[in-house]
Every structure is written in structure tokens, then in C-alpha cells.
């Protein structure tokens, strides 16, 4: 059946995005990875660009673990042992020993009683938050939380929903005060690292506020943190925002295996009771296949690397490269948001200039991501650089040199 009338409307919407300069457009296709050599980190070949090498500064692979021989070998061995896919959802016949071993390792790494893996961190949030909310629940969320949290709150349809200005804990406290008379339960949900800016939530203060108000709610105040950009990449030992802020364990911690750990999938760690409940109620877990056994083995190997002296060395180098890049931006008089996390935003604050600068970087062999409205609020347009432990001093200096030569 032809969809001519609908397709006319859909095309018009895409054309509007194009005219506004906010269409994501063509996806760069990586065709080959050139290994690190001569003091430079890996370079990437892109479809349509011939043999021109690119320095990748738009990857979530903060420790470069996806190219580590141990992870590759462990996944290959597991595929030989268990096959390429799980074969079913977990409650039927899709749970394999590597899934159980990975969950045990993640719980241990984060100091929790239990863990539960999902197909992605997005699915983890969507499959956890709604299960814990009902008509007598208030969900209170930071305004810059990730899309997965925003959509999970919509799906949850809680009795009360509040959004506080970014990191404004005075408003958070006020909102808890407002809902304590009408709700039995409150869930404070926040990103650990805010992925567009690289700043982090003050989890120590948020946890203290939750404890202060806990007695006012018959079913407690829960703190739920999505630390997908923090776990494995932030803190002396890679324990993320909880480690950096000294907050202690949040009630639910969500993270990903697809960023610093270099593999695929998402997970949540919590008490045994909470995890048991989610296994019985979360549709994103019950009705979706898990990650493959091979991915689970590789992910466990990645956690083992992070949780070792070698991992601490990688994290130390990552912090040094992040500081070198931030200092270089500041020396050029460019605006950034200071912080220790390897997401380093260059605040441009103009859509056209952001797009022009991204093009200049690409033409010069640097891959970085421009973030324009509506992905970020108007006035917050920026280029998000992401530093990796794969980067060398020469790589950082090359990127800074390209920025210094921008003719605009």
C-alpha cells in the first residue's frame, strides 16, 4: 500500500530539521581501524574519505578497551564455547553461565548485593524506573537528565512528577516537601555524569537530602542514578560518581557495558530484593534477549582490567589527557565546563558556528560531535569532545592545533 500522504508529511519534517541546521544526517561509517603507532593513538578510516586517517574524539570508549587483545580473545573463545547468540529470553533458556558470572562480578565491583544485565543502559532505565513507580509515587528528576530517564518517567506515569533546575538542590528539597503529604514513595533520579556537559551530580548531597526526608514517606525515598558515563571512567578506581563524591551506594545504580568497559549491554545494581523484583516485573528484561554469552565474558574481562593496577594506570592517563585538553582550550581563550570527566564540551553557543567548526575539524581529520538545539537548550550549543586513554599527548596537541587554526 502506498504511503504517499504520510511520506509527504514525514519528508517535510526532515526538511525542516535540515533547514534549521539540526538534522543529524549522514552517519559516518568506519571501514578500518589503524593501530596506534609512532606516539599517536589509533586512527580510523571513514567510508567515502579514501585513505585519510581520522582521530576519533567522539567515542564513549573512554579506556580504549574494545581493542584490547584480552577482551577480543576472551570473546572469541566464548563464542566457540557458547555460540554467537543467547537463543532465547533469559527465563526460557537464554541464561548462560557467563551472564550469571558477569552479574556477580558487577555486584562485587560496585559493592552491592546483586546485579542484573539488560540489552542496553537505555533499556535498563526504561525497565527499572517504571516498575518502581505507582500512583502514590513522586518521581523527581534533574532537568538535564538523559533521554532514557525522561522517557522512563513518561512510561511510569507516577502520581507526581517534578523536574528541578540542573543541580538546584534547594528546589529538589522544596519539591520533596511538596509531595510528602500526597505520596507514599519518592524516587529521586539523576544522571551521575551529564553526558552533554561532563559535569556530575553531587550525589553526596542528594543522598543526604533523601535520608533527611526518608521518614516522611511510608515507602521511603529512593535515589536512582544513571552513571553510564561514569562507571569505569571516573574516579581513581573507576567506580564513577559515587566514588568521586563519596556518597556511598545509591539505592539503584544503572550503568553501561558499552562505554568505558568497551563491550555492549547495560546493567543495574541494587539490593537482592530489588533485583529479584525487577527480574519478575521488568518487560525490557523478561521479553528481550540478553547480550550474547561472548559479550558477557568480554565484559567481565573488562571489569577485571579496570579493577586492577593496569586499570588505575589507564584511568590516570585518561585524567592527564583530559586535563591537557582542557588546559589547551583555556589557553586559547575558548569556553569549556571544567571537570575531571573525559567529556569536555567546547561551548560555542551558536548553531551555525558549531556546524562550521565541526566541519573544519572533520576536514582536518578530527571527529567530534556538534550538539545543537533541540539536543541541547538554545544558547548551550557546543562541540562535545571525548577523551580516551587511547589518546596520546601528540593526539591532544593535534586537536588543539586544529582548533587554533579555525578561520571563523
Would you kindly provide a written description of the structure presented here, covering whatever features stand out?
- This protein has 408 residues and is of the alpha/beta class.
- It has 2 domains: 70-306, 3-Layer(aba) Sandwich (Aspartate Aminotransferase, domain 2); 309-408, Aspartate Aminotransferase, domain 1.
- Helix content is 42%, strand content 16%.
- The protein has 15 helices and 14 strands.
- It has helices spanning 4-20, 69-82, 90-94, 97-110, 121-126, 147-156, 169-179, 203-214, 241-245, 272-281, 283-286, 293-306, 309-331, 351-363, 393-404, and strands at residues 30-34, 43-46, 53-56, 114-118, 137-142, 160-164, 185-191, 221-226, 252-256, 266-270, 343-347, 366-367, 369-371, 382-386.
- Strands 4-10-9-8-7-5-6 form a 7-stranded mixed beta sheet, sandwiched between helices.
- Strand 2 (43-46) and strand 3 form a beta hairpin.
- Helix 2 runs antiparallel to helix 12, helix 7 packs parallel to helix 8 (203-214) and helix 13 packs parallel to helix 15.
- It is globular, with a radius of gyration of 22 Å.
What is the overall silhouette? globular
CATH superfamily of the largest domain: Type I PLP-dependent aspartate aminotransferase-like (Major domain)
Distance separating the two termini: 49 Å
Domain unit count? 2
Q: Element order, helices and strands?
A: HEEEHHHEHEHEHEHEHEEHHHHEHEEEH
Number of helical regions: 15
The radius of gyration over CA amounts to 22 Å
Structural class, by secondary structure, is alpha/beta
CATH architecture of the largest domain: 3-Layer(aba) Sandwich
CATH topology of the largest domain: Aspartate Aminotransferase, domain 2
Amino acid at each position: 500500500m502506498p504511503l504517499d500522504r504520510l511520506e509527504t508529511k514525514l519528508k517535510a519534517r526532515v526538511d525542516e530539521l535540515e533547514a534549521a541546521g539540526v538534522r543529524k544526517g549522514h552517519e559516518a561509517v568506519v571501514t578500518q581501524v589503524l593501530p596506534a603507532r609512532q606516539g599517536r593513538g589509533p586512527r580510523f578510516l571513514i567510508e567515502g574519505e579514501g585513505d585519510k586517517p581520522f582521530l576519533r574524539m567522539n567515542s564513549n570508549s573512554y579506556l580504549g578497551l574494545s581493542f584490547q587483545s584480552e577482551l577480543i580473545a576472551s570473546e572469541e573463545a566464548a563464542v566457540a564455547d557458547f555460540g554467537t547468540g543467547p537463543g532465547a529470553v533469559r527465563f526460557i533458556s537464554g541464561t548462560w553461565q557467563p551472564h550469571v558470572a558477569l552479574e556477580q562480578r558487577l555486584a562485587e565491583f560496585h559493592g552491592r548485593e546483586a546485579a542484573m544485565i539488560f540489552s542496553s543502559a537505555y533499556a535498563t532505565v526504561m525497565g527499572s524506573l517504571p516498575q518502581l513507580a505507582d500512583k502514590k509515587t513522586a518521581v523527581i528528576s534533574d532537568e538535564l537528565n538523559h533521554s532514557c530517564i525522561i522517557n522512563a518517567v513518561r512510561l511510569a506515569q507516577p502520581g507526581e512528577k517534578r523536574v528541578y533546575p540542573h543541580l538546584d538542590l534547594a528546589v529538589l528539597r522544596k519539591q520533596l516537601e511538596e509531595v510528602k503529604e500526597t505520596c507514599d514513595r519518592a524516587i529521586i533520579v539523576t544522571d551521575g555524569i551529564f553526558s552533554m556537559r561532563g559535569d556530575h551530580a553531587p550525589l553526596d548531597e542528594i543522598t543526604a537530602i533523601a535520608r533527611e526526608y526518608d521518614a516522611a514517606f511510608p515507602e521511603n525515598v529512593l535515589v536512582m542514578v544513571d552513571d553510564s558515563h561514569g562507571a569505569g571512567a571516573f574516579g581513581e578506581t573507576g567506580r564513577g560518581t559515587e566514588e568521586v563524591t563519596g556518597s556511598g551506594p545509591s539505592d539503584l545504580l544503572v550503568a553501561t557495558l558499552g562505554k568505558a568497559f568497551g563491550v555492549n549491554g547495560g546493567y543495574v545494581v541494587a539490593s537482592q530484593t530489588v533485583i529479584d523484583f525487577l527480574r519478575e516485573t521488568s518487560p525490557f528484561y523478561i521479553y528481550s534477549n540478553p547480550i550474547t554469552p561472548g559479550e558477557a565474558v568480554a565484559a567481565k574481562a573488562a571489569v577485571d582490567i579496570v579493577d586492577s593496577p593496569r586499570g588505575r594506570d589507564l584511568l590516570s592517563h585518561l585524567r592527564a589527557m583530559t586535563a591537557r585538553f582542557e588546559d589547551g582550550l583555556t589557553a586559547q581563550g575558548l569556553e569549556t565546563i571544567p571537570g575531571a570527566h573525559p567529556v569536555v564540551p567546547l561551548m560555542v553557543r551558536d548553531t551555525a558556528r558549531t556546524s562550521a567548526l565541526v566541519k573544519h575539524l572533520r576536514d582536518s581529520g578530527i571527529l567530534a560531535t556538534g550538539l545543537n538545539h533541540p539536543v541541547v537548550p538554545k544558547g548551550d550549543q557546543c562541540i562535545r569532545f571525548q577523551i580516551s586513554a587511547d589518546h596520546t599527548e601528540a593526539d591532544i596537541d593535534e586537536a588543539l592545533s586544529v582548533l587554533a587554526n579555525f578561520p571563523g
